[in-house]
Design brief:
Layout (H helix, E strand, L loop, with lengths): L12 H8 L4 E2 L1 E6 L6 E6 L2 E5 L4 E7 L5 H4 L6 E5 L5 H7 L13 E2 L5 E2 L5 E13 L2 E13 L7 E3 L2 E3 L9
Antiparallel strand pairs: 1-11, 2-3, 2-6, 4-5, 5-10, 6-9, 7-8, 9-10, 11-12
Length: 174
């Protein structure tokens, strides 16, 4: 093998992060109303994927040591998952920042269940925690979708190589 094609050990965290950044992913907000009944709480997550149609499941990966997940996590709470739209990069960054400023400039949609949604997102999923699976330095949270709305015409926000990107529609055969 030439040096350019040499494999690096997975124990090198910087090399591993660079490899993970090669995989584009959608970005979501996971939110609910706090136990006080009026304050929205939430966080953004880029490790999100669909899991199952029956039962309807999605997953989100949460870093061990997250200070937000324990406030969101509840066996009885309904969580709102908002799939960020392409124009919502700034909101996404804010939702990943300090908890006090996460909803600055956002007028969240609050469902009857207490699930909180970011307006203008390409999809809203009302979910409950189905299961949590420890996975290294993260926990894989399986969320059961209870209700949803979506608009595939709204372009999603894509995270790739530590940057937000846009999708490009291509013709068949190209």
């Amino acid at each position: 093998m030439t040096p350019a094609r040499r494999l690096h050990p997975a124990t090198d965290e910087s090399v591993l992060k660079r490899a993970f950044s090669c995989f584009p992913s959608g970005v979501v907000a996971v939110c609910r109303i706090a136990d006080d009944g009026r304050t929205p709480i939430g966080m953004s997550a880029s490790a999100f994927t669909t899991v199952s149609l029956d039962p309807p499941l999605v997953s989100v990966c949460v870093r061990n040591g997250s200070s937000t997940w324990p406030t969101l996590q509840s066996p009885t709470a309904s969580l709102g998952v908002s799939v960020f739209a392409s124009h919502q990069g700034e909101i996404c960054r804010r939702m990943a920042g300090p908890p006090d400023g996460r909803f600055e400039g956002v007028h969240p949609i609050v469902g009857e269940s207490g699930a909180v949604f970011v307006p203008g997102a390409s999809a809203h999923l009302q979910c409950s925690v189905f299961d949590e699976v420890p996975a290294g330095d993260h926990v894989v949270v399986l969320l059961r979708i209870e209700a949803l709305r979506s608009d595939p015409a709204v372009e999603p926000l894509v995270f790739h190589a530590s940057s937000f990107r846009a999708l490009e529609a291509r013709r068949a055969g190209v």
